[in-house]
Amino acid sequence: MSAARARAASQGRLAYMLVAPATLLILLIYILPIITVLVMSFTDYTLVSDYFEFIGFENYAKMFTDSAFLNALENTVIYAVIFLPAAFIIPLVLALMIQKRKQFRSILEVLYFLPVTSTLAAMSLVWGALMDGNQGALNELLSSFGAGPVNWLGSEGVVLISLALVAIWSVIGFNMVLFLAGLTTIPTRLYEAAAMDGADHPLDRFFRVTWPMLGPTALFVAVISSINAFKLFDTVAILTQGGPDHASEVYLYLAYLEGFEYFNMGYAAALSLFFLLIIFVFALIQTMFADNKVQY
Amino acid sequence: MARLQLKSIRKSFDGNDILKGISIDVKDGEFLSLVGESGCGKSTLLRIISGLEVPDSGEILIDDRPVTREAPKARNIAMVFQDYALYPHMTVAENMAMPLIMARLPLHARLPLAGRFSPAARRARPDISEKVRAVAAQLRIEHLMERRPGQLSGGQRQRVALGRALVRDPGIFLMDEPLSNLDAKLRVEVRKEITELHAASGLTFVYVTHDQTEAMTMSDRVALLQKGTLLQVGAPGQLYADPANIEVARFIGSPEINFLPVEAASDMMRLGNQHLPLRLSGRTGGFTFGLRPEAIHPAGFAAAPASADTIRLSFRRTLVEDLGHELLIHGAFAALPETDVRVRLQKSHGRPLDLPESFDTLIAPEDLLVFDEFGKRIQQKPLPVRQGVVA
Amino acid sequence: MSTVVHTQKPSRLSALLQSVRPRSLSDAVGTLVLFIGGWIMVFPFVWMISSSFKPTYEVYDPDFTIIPKTFVGFENYAGVLFDQPYLRFMFNSAVVCLGILIVQLVTAIPAAYALAKLRFRGSTIFFGTVIASITIPINVISIPIYIGLVQIRMLDTYFAMMFPFLVSVFAIFLFRQFFKAYPDSIIDAARVDGFSEIEIILRLILPAAVPAIAAFTVFSLVAHWNDLYWPLIVVQSQDKMTATLSMMQYQSDFDTDYGRTFASAAVVSAPMVIAFLFFRRLFIRGITMTGIKG
């Protein structure tokens, strides 16, 4: 009896040794900071002055009356609404098309996945040049069809669309590969059974077999893409810096400015926590719906 | 109920000939089994019949109508897959309704959401539900209608797969090794149910299996395939008693038939170092006897075969397996000690038998199957040589 | 004279052509659409490299050609690598990425093994914390960590650049899944044979985990090479600037030498892209690993 207990004890000791480094780091990097951010959000701490005081929920109240915040939230939501459908449907269609073409699959995967591996900050510069209002290649292309030049990054009405275009470009390959992986898990047998049942029209096959079986993957892609939409930062920092006239000031960029340019740390902390809440909601949606889905 | 004709079906994949010209005529209402070892092409043949594959050459006719290149749904055929292939995200009721929805509703009425409200859909749905319920009742699965396949046992899933096929009132019913995923006990039960289903429905069944017991017990006729060729088609009893060649004889019958090399001279035959008072009229040379384990009768322990001209051969046993109702005796004839022979001996009343190590066996010449040097069966049976002495 | 008929095996070229023959019109159209889309995906890279070979006035030439009319590639790239401290920037990025990766692996693998195979008190709490932390992005914890670094005067150091990423809760989660799948029976057999726990980890588990480690390595390296946000916050001097961060210097007023701008963009993107082309399978598996979350 005690030999087993001794072994269990030594296993326990070993385990503590093994998790010690990670635990220490998690404490320093996640736990303490989160607590600090929470506490800080109730203060008016700014880096420049050592003196600060607790102001309760004032930061949070300020958020909802601050026009900059509301503007940033609105921009981010509009951006997400433009980004999400395209970032979902296009890769899905591509995956369906590529799955059938075995010979070209490798080269097509390379072409579409290339933007995913590239450095977005660097490629943003390229897109900035392509989208240049005066000399950009995109406008050259449009004018060859007779359409007028578009001020992609300099016009308030269009800038979010332009940013969404860049983001869609960079994420198509990623979502496409996820959908491809999901498609390969669908047993061919089901399509054969469907063919026997009379469902050989492509729409029937899609709605009766492909789409239901793709459920978990589709949910995942939707949630991940939504979270990524809210995390927009790099292209804004490089190309527009929130302009023109705050039209592209998205949530994380505002939080960055508040925290690291204006040094309103307390307020920025509140913004960060609210952001975390949004992310949690998305993650919650994922776990809730993932359980209800297909079991087989 | 439909008639199926296959004419010279050929199919190859990646340069391998899977089917080398198969022709079979399946009668209306017949239960035909396609049997053979793995790789013999039986599943491919079934898929060609179903329309999931297209043959390289040859013709398929259903009720005299050529369907060789037509899609599955145009052939009025239903298929039960080995792993049932039920739609995991649909209930049992929805699974069974699928074929009817596909058949009776036009495309716009089948689309999700919007299709539900189309008048065609609303008219057709009650009929569909009714039919599904009727078939479910027939298979005794009405209590499972709202469950999903993931919540069912293997046997229940099988019935749902059968139901989904039956609901279409097909002319031909195809089954691809439907019992192989079930445990032994369930297998026997479902075997009986399928046979009863066939009898009750009168549909034409084409049944693929690698298990010859299934094929023999369930079928009207059995088609034995080997490496893409059709060895023989016939009633089970016929394949057993009248095999066309060594391969058929070897495949049918459990435990496996015994093969004994013999030499034939004009007035006698020789097995190893023993003379046999038998001759083959007009033929001499090397032959192979096929002798079933149940056709070897240990003298004194089994009733002698009812024949006037029994051959007596000495047998030495090496291993005895007691199966309760019978013994499976392994050994060899004294005349041919290198060749393994199996003997089946029924026990009376399950009483233990004490077999000596060596004993005589009695064999009726009528039980001997004769194969020439190419493995082909020759129709004649060995004739007893009345005069002359057993060596 | 007898004529001998040769049935020749089709040449490899004709077999290849045969295999890509479209089966129908819609098939051909679809393939065409896919490749047009592929061209759109790749065009920015083509444009970037093409421009990096051009002198400034030609980059925005309305009469666009891929092959530069005047080739100044050598000058542009030499300028990038030597006139500007790009080699330094790349070096910094490499140091940071590798440092992060090593610490991540060294802390995550043992922790993951403990969670997967050992029983100890507090394992549930620990694992729960790991799961919860996965959803926490850098943007939320950046402020306190920044302030902390300021207080200990460690801003603008390699340590500061690596610190928030040193533990990857995602790696812990991923490796735990992987280790859990490793058969207990093999471990028990090793224990019976007298292996110590450490030996079991080093000699049995680790070699088996190489695919997962490789895929995670790709994921980590790419993510941190491309990171802009955190270096933007903690890097103060050009001495510590990373390759990706250096893109910020072109943000408002474009460098007057456009060709050189895109040469530097190309230099920064090159390592990841080239690695991708060589290790394609590994990349795709590694980057889509973010897909395999709880």
From TrEMBL, chain C:
Membrane topology qualifier: Multi-pass membrane protein
First and last residue of the signal peptide: none
Pfam families associated with the record: BPD_transp_1
Gene3D superfamilies tied to this protein: MetI-like
Subcellular location: Cell membrane
SUPFAM superfamilies registered for this protein in UniProt: MetI-like
Key words, A-Z: Cell membrane, Membrane, Transmembrane, Transmembrane helix, Transport
Domain ABC transmembrane type-1 span(s) in chain numbering: 90-279
PANTHER family: ABC TRANSPORTER PERMEASE PROTEIN MG189-RELATED (PTHR43744:SF12), ABC TRANSPORTER PERMEASE PROTEIN MG189-RELATED-RELATED (PTHR43744)
Protein name (record): Carbohydrate ABC transporter membrane protein 2 (CUT1 family)
